[in-house]
Amino acid sequence: METATRVLIYEDNPDLRISLSQLLGGTPGLELAGALGNCQQVETDIPRLKPDVVLMDIDMPGLNGIEGLKRIKAKSPGVSVVMLTVFEDNDRVFQAVCAGADGYLLKKTPPAKLLDAINEVKAGGAPMTPAIARQVLRLFPKPVAPRQQEDSPANLSAREQEILGLLVEGYSYKMIAHDRGISLDTVRSHIKKIYEKLHVRSMTEAVSKALRQGLT
Predict the structure, then answer these.
(1) Which of 17, 31, 104 is nearest to 60 (CA)?
(2) Helix, coil or strand: residue 102
(3) pTM of the entire predicted model
(4) With 0-12 CB in 10 A as exposed, 13-18 as middle and 19+ as buried, what is 144?
């Protein structure tokens, strides 16, 4: 039997914290690890509550979510952290991406899409709402050097470059599978190889490197 994905919520709005808790607690395959109003004790919360995925609010009293994210990644890099926020501004997105966020969603994201995002990040994806994906693209300057016509600098195959390009455009794993007429497992296999060739561990790192080096 497959182990349930444990999700920890950091959210200072009590109403939203309760509604998220009820949503996660009532969803098969997910288990609520905890729901806390601040992340001031994040370094002890993580080993105590053992989450697989953290939903992290950005604006919280005492210690903000970006600092909480940094502390999680420093001590427990295997824990996936999805920023859940009302903010779309460039500075916050950039800070979160640079700090290693595995996804970035707006609080107005519909419940069904939020649940999809949790499953996606657990599978190695980097869920972002379209508005956030566009913001991320704007953070990186377009490469000025002409792209090589042969193999890419990272020796990506033509198919891997294709898939990396779709990731850069904000496509989810399911969208890539549908767009290219291949299975979800095939998409995951390609993305695993892309990670290995780019020497990255997350979708945000892969997208960042692709944009910086003009790999797509």
Answers:
(1) 17
(2) coil
(3) 0.66
(4) exposed
